[in-house]
TrEMBL record, chain A:
Catalytic activity: a quinone + NADH + 5 H(+)(in) = a quinol + NAD(+) + 4 H(+)(out)
NCBIfam families: nuoF_fam, PRK13596.1
Record bears the keyword Zinc: no
Major enzyme class: translocase
Origin species: Pedobacter caeni
SMART domains xref list: NADH_4Fe-4S (SM00928)
Start and end residues of each NADH-ubiquinone oxidoreductase 51kDa subunit iron-sulphur binding domain: 340-385
The protein, known as: NADH-quinone oxidoreductase subunit F
Gene3D superfamilies for the chain: 3.10.20.600, 6.10.250.1450, NADH-ubiquinone oxidoreductase 51kDa subunit, NADH-ubiquinone oxidoreductase 51kDa subunit, iron-sulphur binding domain
Annotated PROSITE patterns: COMPLEX1_51K_2 (PS00645)
GO molecular function list: 4 iron, 4 sulfur cluster binding; FMN binding; metal ion binding; NAD binding; NADH dehydrogenase (ubiquinone) activity; quinone binding
Function description: NDH-1 shuttles electrons from NADH, via FMN and iron-sulfur (Fe-S) centers, to quinones in the respiratory chain.
From TrEMBL, chain B:
UniProt similarity note: Belongs to the complex I 75 kDa subunit family.
InterPro entries in the record: 2Fe-2S_ferredoxin-like_sf, 2Fe-2S_ferredoxin-type, NADH_UbQ_OxRdtase_ferredoxin, NADH_UbQ_OxRdtase_Gsu_4Fe4S-bd, Prok_molybdopt-oxidoreductase
Classification lineage: Bacteria, Pseudomonadati, Bacteroidota, Sphingobacteriia, Sphingobacteriales
Cofactor requirement: [2Fe-2S] cluster; [4Fe-4S] cluster
CDD domains assigned to the protein according to its UniProt record, in alphabetical order: fer2
Pfam family, one: NADH-G_4Fe-4S_3
Subcellular location: Membrane
Presence of the UniProt keyword Transcription in the record: no
Molecular function terms from GO: 2 iron, 2 sulfur cluster binding; 4 iron, 4 sulfur cluster binding; metal ion binding; oxidoreductase activity
Name of the molecule in the record: NADH dehydrogenase subunit G
Domain 2Fe-2S ferredoxin-type stretches: 3-92
Length: 454, 334
């Protein structure tokens, strides 16, 4: 059985209540950090742990914390990004629903480390039940003396607030989140300055994902070195993966980083294989923003070694043959799924969620969606495929925030790996409406797949 | 240590104050190497970074940290560092990306220049000539909106809007109470006062001047004349609310419209009030100064040969003088 750090007590009845959570060893990290460690020592532990941001970019959390500007007499803020809205990602919602105190405990430890006395949890507007759960949990923690003035008699004060968002995907971008939190229109800010220098209300701010913050609890309990022993290479610790799609057992899993992808999909301990006895065609390994990969490249690297669930292994080979860890939204497609339709669906999402601030993303996402819609519904032309590649190139890297990149990558990668299927949609417009292209050679050993690509 | 920093843009070095943006450093050099700007407006705080036409490549970050920046950056919002090297028109990558941005700006633009009042003084038109394709690759219906009257003097034609946010910043910063903003999201975004609530402010007319395209037009001038048939004259009056320094646009004896004075980058020098703009349309109201200096690349400048002058940076740099010898000889002929 793999080691669980975040979801260890997930099946304990009433773990969402303070009493049960405390009985199971909860809030030990707060006691340890506040009573025996200095804020700098907490940051040092997190640095030693090698914890990397769980929201998508994978930036080392300890390093992010150490960048925080600490001018005299200016408030500092910690903001938890719970605006989880990426298609395919639902790990934070699961964590907040079932173990809300893990997040709150992490928030107290992290706020202490950063010297923040007011912290916010910005929750996506659609997650109303989770907002109520968190508010109840905060009230319980406050009653028990873990929040408010003079926590545990150590003289450290912390107020924790839950802020419901308006339900925009773009507010998961850290600067858009801060704008929204300030009560403005959720448009990403132009960087620099970065939030670590001027964030919420112009004060130094750290924005972290729910899972990153919750992960500080086991780091403080067991020590950063102990945490760093789990995982592989620079991908340390455990990661929540929200598996969905055509799997026998979809759901949220906590894995040790470094687990082979093949084992994750097919082992009975995890997803249990592809549903209905079908074969795997493609995967999106880290939420809708990351490049889609065909089955052969999902399971094996280009050189034939097995691909592992880790930041490095998933991105091995760059965008030519690799993908990204992203936020851990693992989507599997079986042989009967249409990649063109799926790409259009993702593209429609980004078109809808673009904030409209900068021109390439505002206009380009809509353009790509319309061209993909045309391809999917049998009105496409051969030149549309190259047009899509060109438009995605014009968006990528030229926008204010990463939403433009996130919109461009799925389209560019789908065409890179599944060009045959796009061409088939153009050549067989009627047939493609009723049947699917099928598995083709996407699951065959890599040598052959690569040679057909060339 | 000197309090100036050195930055090299397309091979031309200039010394600027710390904190200057790349775009403003380029403007101190002048000429073709100045990146175009559709949304940045030096008089409006917080503007810029949105249209992405001013993107440039930073091939050397600074003297201390010579690594190049990983992506193209918006020159209007990136400050220079000492020893920074920037490529604008000398980088094919920048030209490629910029034409991509221009294409994006144009796919939903109606291209109704023949009936648009802005034609002839439109930043998007200039940009389109320079970077646009001859034929659009966009084969879908363009997004359309109904025209909206903002008060009785200003008309908003959202179809033409490129969402530069300049008018939003103007309303926010020049006028006392903010009355208009952006509705909706993505490519459904629109500038609106929400249910046509009139913008009622002495300085509201300035949104017309800051608009880089023909989205906000002066209803007292709509369809009166093409701008290149009118003659711009600088004039002033004693105005109790504003500086009273304006440009009058004459056709024959008549003042067809009044605008604020604009510099060579199309930016207003001093904002003017609505009384000056809309109500004072007689020569008798004004003290005439002289014909307005118009950039020689503008269509309005046709037949204004006296404006051909070498840029300051060329005047005092022997190497550049040599490189531009043919052009300079032409200038001296006039």
């Amino acid at each position: 059985m793999a080691r669980k750090l975040l979801l260890e007590h997930i099946n304990v009845p009433d773990i969402h209540t303070f009493d049960v959570y405390r009985q199971k060893g909860g809030y030990r990290a707060v006691e340890k950090a506040l009573k025996t460690l200095t804020p700098d020592e907490v940051v040092e532990e997190v640095k030693k742990s090698g914890l990397r941001g769980r929201g998508g970019a994978g930036f080392p959390t300890g390093m992010k914390w150490s960048f925080l500007a600490k001018p005299e007499g200016v408030a500092r803020y910690l903001v938890c990004n719970a605006d989880e809205s990426e298609p395919g990602t639902f790990k934070d919602r699961y964590l907040m629903t079932h173990i809300p105190h893990a997040l709150i405990e992490g928030m107290i430890v992290s706020s202490f480390a950063l010297g923040a006395h007011t912290s916010y949890i910005y929750v996506r507007g659609e997650m109303m039940p989770q907002i109520r759960i968190l508010e109840k949990a905060i009230a319980e923690a406050k009653n028990a003396g873990f929040l408010g003035k003079n926590i545990l008699g150590t003289g450290y004060d912390l107020e924790l607030y839950v802020q419901p968002g308006g339900g925009a995907y773009i507010c998961g971008e850290e600067t858009a989140l801060l704008e929204s939190l300030e009560g403005k229109r959720g448009n990403p800010r132009i960087k620099p300055p970065f939030p670590a220098i001027a964030g919420l209300y112009g004060c130094p701010t750290v924005v972290n994902n729910v899972e990153s913050i919750a992960a500080t609890v086991p780091i403080i309990n067991d020590g950063g070195d102990e945490y760093a022993k789990i995982g592989i290479g620079r991908s340390t610790g455990t990661k929540l993966i929200s598996a969905s799609g055509n799997l026998v057992r979809p759901g949220v899993y906590e894995i040790e980083l470094g687990l082979p992808v093949e084992e994750f999909i097919y082992s009975d301990e995890w997803c249990g294989g592809i549903a209905n006895g079908k074969r795997l065609k493609a995967t999106v390994a880290g939420g809708s923003s990351v490049p889609v990969l065909p089955a052969n490249l999902t399971l094996k690297l280009a050189n034939g070694d097995p691909r592992l669930m880790s930041y490095e292994s998933l991105s091995e080979g760059g965008f030519a043959t690799g993908t990204m860890m992203g936020s851990g939204g693992f989507i599997a497609f079986d042989e009967d799924q249409c990649i063109v339709r799926n790409t259009w669906n993702f593209s429609r999402f980004y078109h809808h969620e673009s904030c409209g601030q900068c021109s390439p993303c505002r206009e380009g996402t809509g353009w790509m969606e319309k061209v993909l819609h045309r391809l999917e519904y049998g009105h496409g032309k051969m030149s549309d495929i190259d047009l899509l590649v060109d438009v995605s190139k014009k968006i990528e890297g030229n926008t204010i925030c990463p939403l433009g990149d996130a919109a461009a990558w799925p389209v560019a990668s789908a065409i890179r790996h599944f060009r045959d299927e796009f061409e088939w949609h153009v050549k067989e417009p009627v047939k493609s409406l009723n049947t699917n292209y099928g598995l083709a050679n996407y699951a065959e050993p890599i040598a052959k797949a690569v040679s057909t690509e060339n | 240590m000197s309090d100036k920093v050195k930055v090299t843009i397309d091979g031309i070095t200039v010394e600027v104050a710390p904190g200057t943006t790349i775009l403003n450093a380029a403007r101190q050099i002048g000429g073709d190497i100045v990146p175009p700007a559709m949304c940045y407006y030096s008089k409006l705080e917080g503007s810029g970074g949105k249209c992405r036409t001013c993107i440039v490549k930073v091939s050397k970050g600074s003297e201390k940290d010579p690594r190049p920046m990983p992506k193209l950056v918006a020159s209007c919002r990136t400050t220079v560092m000492d020893g920074m090297e920037v490529q604008n028109i000398t980088s094919p990558e920048v030209i490629e990306a910029r034409s991509g941005v221009v294409e994006m700006l144009l796919i939903n633009h109606p291209l109704d220049c023949p009936v648009c009042d802005q034609a002839g003084e439109c930043d998007l038109q200039n940009l389109g000539y320079e970077h646009g394709l001859q034929k659009t690759r966009y084969e879908f219906e363009r997004r359309t909106f109904e025209r909206i009257d903002i008060g009785d003097k200003i008309q908003l034609h959202m179809n033409r809007c490129i969402l530069c946010y300049r008018c939003v910043f103007t309303a926010d910063q020049i006028t006392n109470k903010r009355v208009h903003g952006i509705l909706n999201r993505g490519d459904h975004s629109e500038i609106s006062t929400y249910i046509q609530t009139a913008v009622d402010n002495d300085f509201s007319g300035n949104v017309i001047d800051v608009c880089p395209v023909g989205a906000l037009t002066d209803k007292t001038f709509r369809f009166k004349n093409r701008v290149w048939f009118t003659k711009p004259i600088d004039a002033h009056r004693d105005c109790p609310t504003c500086s009273g320094k304006v440009t009058l646009w004459y056709k024959g004896e008549d003042v067809l419209r009044v605008t604020a004075r604009k510099d060579i980058y199309g930016e207003v020098e001093e904002f003017i009030c609505n009384t000056c703009r809309f109500d004072k349309k007689k020569t008798a109201d004004w003290t005439i100064e002289h014909p307005t200096q118009i950039s020689d690349t503008s269509v309005i400048a046709s037949n204004h040969y006296d404006t051909l002058k070498p840029l300051p940076v060329i005047q005092d740099n022997a190497r550049l003088q040599e490189a531009n010898r043919v052009e300079l000889e032409k200038t001296t002929k006039f």
